[in-house]
Every structure is written in C-alpha cells, then in structure tokens.
Amino acid sequence: MNKKSSGRPYLVEISRISRGIESSGLADVDLSVYTYVTNVSLYSGEDDFFAVTGDYAVREIGGKLYRFDYEAGSGSGNIRYVVNGIIAAASAGILLLLLYVYREIIVPFDRMKELPRELARGRLTMPMKQGKSRYFGEFFWGIDLLRESIEQQKNRELELLRERKRLHLSLLHDIKNPLLAIKLYSKALARGLYSDRDKQIEAAESIDRNADEIESFVSQMVSSSREDFFDMEVCMGEFYLSHLINRICSYNSERFRLSGVNFSIQKIPDCLLRGDPERAAEVLQNIIENAVKYGDGKLISVSFSEEEGCILIAVKNSGCTLSESEQPHIFESFWRGSNSGNAPGCGLGLFICRRLMNKMGGDIFASSEGGYMTVTSVFPKS
Predict the structure, then answer these.
(1) Which residues pair with 240 in a beta bridge?
(2) Tens of pLDDT along 213-253?
(3) Which is it for strands 37-42 and 64-70: parallel, antiparallel or unpaired?
(4) Contact 321, 339 (CB under 8 A)
(5) Longest Cα pair distance anywhere in the chain, in angstroms?
(6) pTM of the model
(7) Which long-range contacts (CB under 8 A, 24 or more apart) does 353-357 make?
(8) What residue ranges of the chain have pLDDT lower than 50?
C-alpha cells in the first residue's frame, strides 16, 4: 500500500480486482472477499449524470471500460456525520443568537422608542420597567430617574406657584389699606381740608409711612418671585477632583477640538472635595459655556491652586470686553453685560453658579486683566 492510497483503501481493492480481471476475466472475480468494492460492471459511458448515485470509479482493462462501485468506508461516513453535526450546531447557534438579539436588543429598543414621546407629553406618573437587559437595563433606570426628577421638579414648581400666588393675593390685600389711606390723605391735602400746619405735617408723615409699608410689600413680592424659583437642592457628599475634571473633559474636549478652541487643563492635584459632584460639574460647565459665549473662541484654560484648605478652580478665556464697571454685576440674576450682543441667554448662568457654590459651602468670584476673563470657583477640601 503506497502513501497516496493509505487514506483511500478502496483504491487498493480496485487495483487488485483490475489485475484479476486482466488475468482471468470478470467472471472469476469474487467480490465477497473485498470490503469496499461492492460491484463491478462493464461501463458504456452513457449513464445519466444526474441519475447516478453512490461512489464509483472507471478503469480501462484490456481495451474495455469497467465501473467499480464502492463504499468509501466508515471514515468518510464519520466525516459526513461530523460535518452535518457542525452545520446543525452552527444553525442552532445562529438561531439562538437571533433569539437573543430579539429579546435583549430589539424588544427593549422597541419599548425605548416610546419613552421620549411619553415624557414630552408629560406622562410622568407611570414608572419605567427596568427589565433585565444588560444593554438597556441601566438606560431604563436612568430614564426612570429622569422621569422622577422631572415629576418632582414639576410638582415643586406647581407648589411654588401656588405659594407665590397665595402670597401675592395676601400682599395685594394688605396693600389696599395703606394705599387707601394714601389716597385719602392726598385728596384731603389737595382740597385744603387741613388748614392747620401740624395736621398737614401729620398727613404727610402718614402718607410716608403707608408708602414705606407698600414698598415693603412690593419687596416681598419681588423676593418671592426671584429667589424661590432658584431654590435648588444640593446633596452634600465627597468626590475626587480628578473625577470632576474628567467629566468636564469628556463634555468638552472633542467639541473644542472640532471647533479649533485651544482648550487646556493644568495637571490635576488630585484630592477629595466636599460638595455635590453633580452640582459641581454643573457649576464648571456653566462657567465654560459663558467662556464660549462671551470669549473670542481662541483660548479656554483650567488651572488649580490651593488656599486655606480650599481648592480654587480657575476657568480663563480670552476675548474679554466687559468693562470694569459691569464686572460687579455679573453674578446678579437676569443681568447681561454689554458684551452679550446677540448671544443667546437670559443672564442666569453665573447667578445659578453662585447660588450653588454658596449652598455647597464654597464661593465664586471673577476678575479680568489684559483682555482675559477668569472665573474662579472655590471648593472646600474634605
């Protein structure tokens, strides 16, 4: 048995039978002694290709063609079984994969597409089902937190609106009495009903007292309209400065790279700060947004320093055109500087920053020099 036929033993038997046919003829061939060859017959070459089944080989012996039908052996059959098994396993695997994709991705995504619409319609009372999807479970959890936050904010605004309306009605009612007294005294003075000088002075003083009372009521109304609306909640805790700055980097790095802004951050002296990490990120992001709006878009840098147990985070931008007389007002609500131009906004960004920093036990201040504006937020170290 040569090397070429070692893996195909039926070829050895065909060779032996061929020699037997050549020496003594087909009639003397005993196929019972052979394992693989099952039949030998003269081959005319006219067989229908599509009708032929099984394995066979054709040999020319003594000027005639002989067809040798054979079985390739158990090894080939095992290979077929193995191949068929692999195909079946692969098909089952693909089917399971498609089922997994349907259950874990398509079905949750189909549920997810309705969430923004439901939130936009104000349907905030129904909780979102988190599900067990490893891909969207956390997303549903986040959406549910957003829903709860919006619902709480909505209820809080409604409550503030009710309280403010109740206060305004009460103050308006209280204003009526001093206002009526002012009108009466002013009419009496206009008609000369008080001829006595002392009576005239008394009437004027009464008008002044009632005017002061009305001014006090108006101040209360203005205060309730401005301050209560910005009564933001702060959840005090501890966070690392590096985590805060990494969040700011993730928000802005790619954006500034595409817009061509030279955005740089000094090496971070990592330490533990005290405050609300979400509100701290909001403060820094508001400062950076102001730098983008009112700067020239060339330079925005973030630097750090330490003073008296506090970390100072300074955000500096080029292109400051704000006058010195306007700088003391930049943290006031609804105030916008002369450099605002057509930039969108309502003058609340830095006001909100100051309120949040005060609530977190910190501070915020601003300075300008040489065409650069620097807004510095002060965070207490833990």
Answers:
(1) 272
(2) 888 777 776 666 655 555 678 899 999 999 999 989 888 88
(3) antiparallel
(4) yes
(5) 164
(6) 0.50
(7) 353/283, 353/286, 353/287, 353/377, 355/230, 355/232, 356/232, 356/234, 356/276, 356/279, 356/282, 356/283, 357/283
(8) 1-5, 49-51
